[in-house]
Each structure stands twice: as C-alpha cells, then as structure tokens.
Write a structure and sequence with these properties.
It is built from 9 helices and 4 strands; from the N terminus they run H-E-H-H-H-E-H-E-H-H-E-H-H. The chain has about 200 residues and is of the alpha/beta class. The structure holds iron/sulfur cluster (SF4).
C-alpha cells in the first residue's frame, strides 16, 4: 500500500476516541522520500486546533535548534513528523499534558516507518520517544551521550519553555550538541533536496 493511502487511514483513526478529551485528530507529516524523521511526544492544544505539527513555541525553538526555516521543516518530501502519540491527549490533574496514548506508537509506527525507506536521521525527542527508540536511561544521559547514537539518531529534550533553564544550566548542549545537530540535519535535508531536483530534472 502507498504511504498516502496509509496516511489517510491513520488520519481517520478513532481507536482512542473514548479517552481523548477533544476527540481524535491524528497529526502527521509523512512521505516516501523524507530523509529526516522527527519523533516527539504528542500534539499540544495549539497543534490540535491548527492541525499543523510543531506549530507552537516549542516548534519555533526546535526549528532554531535544527537551523531549519519553516518552508523546509514543513516540506514532507524532506521532513517526516511522527510523534509517539498522534492526537492531543489532554491534561493531567496537576497540570501538564498527559502522556501519549500508549496504543498509538505500537499501532502506527510499524505501519508507517517501513514506507519511509529513505530516513537517514531520526531526532528522538523527549522521554517517551527515547524509551521506545533508545531503550532504558534518563533523558539527560541520552542527550549528554548523543554521540553514541550518531550518525542515524540524535536524542533531544522536548523543546518547551521548561528547557530554556535546562539549556542555561547545561551549556555543553549549545556548544557541543547543537553544532553537530545542525550539521547532520543540513546534510540530510540538503542531500534530499538535491535528489529531488535531480529526479525533477531527469
Ligand atoms: S492517539 Fe493514535 S491510536 Fe489513538 S486515536 Fe489518535 S491516532 Fe488513533
């Protein structure tokens, strides 16, 4: 089955309809040619309302970390976005978003990922994505030892406002990780764009 057909099926998913306070609205960006994959946590309210992934302050911070403009970030031919939970999960009683729906990634990732064979780099963002893709370990340790996962994966903290203070307390993140991240993302996205141009020209 082609990825567009599967994406339509995913966007119509209602598996968690009884548990989602605002109802199902799966938000993904996928294509068979994408070379960069971003696996984050789950949409927040603003993303749920707009239907546009990372369309919030966290997304602005993430694009700044990656050194990508919006046009490139939202180009599905180059960048795929597939979080651990595809729908907004609601809030916890004490505040903060609920975890991604546990059924979501095991249901849809194994269906979609084989249809994106050109992925060269996966950004593993936040604790839920790290638990699935990198295994056991504290988020800060995964990020600090990011070189262990190169060249095909880079772990990152969730780029929310809470990370601003963490970044200040951990200057190595800006000094060591971000230059490597921007370099790898640039390589993968730029090479992908050259391939697309070559295909169009031939
Ligand atoms: S969270 Fe995932 S599994 Fe649940 S309804 Fe949304 S797309 Fe379907």
């Amino acid at each position: 089955m082609k990825i567009d057909e599967v994406a339509r099926e995913v966007r119509a998913c209602t598996l968690c309809a009884n548990s989602l306070p605002r109802g199902p609205r799966p938000i993904i960006q996928v294509s068979a040619t994408a070379r960069l994959l971003i696996v984050g946590q789950a949409p927040g309210t603003r993303v749920h309302e707009s239907g546009v992934p990372w369309n919030d302050a966290s997304g602005t911070r993430l694009r700044d970390w990656l050194g990508l403009d919006e046009a490139t970030f939202y180009d599905p031919a180059r960048v795929a976005i597939l979080p651990m939970g595809l729908c907004y999960p609601g809030v916890l009683p004490k505040g903060g978003d609920r975890p991604p729906m546990p059924i979501c990634a095991p249901t849809w990732h194994p269906v979609l990922l084989p249809l994106m064979p050109n992925i060269e780099l996966t950004l593993v963002i936040g604790t839920y994505a790290m638990a699935r893709l990198l295994g056991k370990g504290a988020m800060a340790d995964h990020v600090r030892h990011f070189r262990n996962h190169l060249p095909d994966r880079i772990p990152l903290p969730h780029p929310s406002w809470r990370t601003v203070g963490w970044e200040r307390r951990n200057p190595w993140f800006g000094e060591k990780l971000l230059p490597v991240l921007r370099g790898r993302v640039g390589e993968v996205v730029t090479e992908g764009s050259k391939d697309c141009e070559a295909r169009h020209a031939s």
